[in-house]
Design a protein that fits this description.
The chain is α/β, with parallel strands linked by helices. It is 23% helix and 35% strand. The model has no long low-confidence stretch (mean pLDDT 92). The chain binds inosinic acid and magnesium ion.
Length: 185
């Protein structure tokens, strides 16, 4: 199946402005007694957001990476997440901020939040760049959300289709053409 970018939903300038706002809100949510933060970034989708966000948060921080597989193989249909690589090091007593690209069904974030909570951090907040409207149940929430979008599949700024398009600088919808459809058209 071949796929290409269809329509730009959020341009890179808007993303940059919003990420700066989020960084300000996140920094302000910790008081001056918070010595150090630990960012738990969900690979691989969160990497671009993480890089832009954390350079605008002045606190001392550690990075902890967690790998969750939500789509085994080339697919846009989630079959339930599995933590394939947990964070290295302890989160006990740390001020943890989970950073993820998108809150869709909430299954990924629920798994990550549960894994972090089991380690008893001093505090736990979550930041996502995107949230699909009306999808995640109320028990999975993000404290900081960049943009609410409709329930469409998007790529770019870290988000992928079959591991591609992560380097595309804008957030865009995708046009997927199966070889059979290409022959018919
Ligand atoms: P959830 O478990 O359904 O909330 O899905 C969350 C994960 O699935 C995200 O961390 C993304 O990696 C991926 N995902 C969900 N929606 C999209 C999308 O529209 N484009 C690309 N990846 C997505
Ligand atoms: Mg993904």
């Amino acid at each position: 199946m071949s796929a290409r970018v269809d329509r730009i939903l959020i341009r890179r300038e808007r993303i940059a402005a919003r990420v700066a706002e989020l960084a300000g809100q996140i920094a302000a949510s910790y008081d001056e007694r918070t010595e150090r933060l630990t960012m738990v970034a969900v690979l691989s989708g969160a990497v671009i957001f993480l890089a832009d966000l954390i350079r605008q948060i002045p606190h001392q921080m550690k990075l902890a990476l967690i790998t969750v597989s939500s789509y085994p193989g080339a697919s846009t249909a989630s079959r339930g997440p599995t933590i394939v690589r947990d964070v290295e090091g302890k989160l006990t007593g740390e001020h943890v901020l989970i950073v993820d690209d998108i809150l869709d069904t909430g299954n990924t974030l629920r798994a990550v939040q549960e894994a972090v909570r089991r380690q008893e951090p001093a505090s736990l907040q979550t930041a996502v760049l995107l949230r699909k409207r009306g999808k995640a149940p109320p028990d999975v929430a993000a404290d900081f959300v960049g943009f609410d979008i409709d329930d469409v599949f998007v790529v770019g700024y870290g988000l992928d289709y079959d591991d591609l398009f992560r380097n595309y600088p804008h957030i865009a919808t995708l046009r997927v053409a199966s070889p059979a459809a290409a022959l018919r058209s």
